[in-house]
Amino acid sequence: MNAPQPGQIPCPSCSRPLALPVTAVLRGEPIVCAGCGLELTTQREASREALAALDRWHRDTAAARTAAVSGQPPEQAPRPSRRARRPRR
To answer: How much of the chain exceeds pLDDT 70, in percent?
Structure first.
């Protein structure tokens, strides 16, 4: 049996590594284990905040992922500030 790699989890039924494609998770598509056929789906309402964070990460890293595939350096975009700005009074 192979150990799961990043972007994978062990199947809850057979423990085979199960890939979790980000786009499939964001679209709500079922993930099916090739080993035992177990079908996993995201509980969209219970996972709303986690899915929103995953969607932001996916959008924010799109340029870097495209650059990695093409072998080109990503464009330098300004990084968003981590500190929340307080409204002026």
So the answer is: 74
Residue 39's nearest CA partner among 14, 72, 70 is 14
How do the domains of the chain map onto residue ranges?
8-65
Q: Report the SS3 class of residue 47.
A: coil
User: Token pair 């929103």 is at which residue?
Assistant: 52
pTM of the complete model: 0.60
Residues 39, 31 contacting (CB under 8 angstroms): yes
DSSP string, 8-58: EEE-TTT--EEE--HHHHHHT--EE-TTT--EE---TTTTHHHHHHHHHHH
Provide the 3-class DSSP secondary structure of residue 51: helix
The type of residue at 14 is C
31 in Cβ contact with 42 (< 8 Å): no
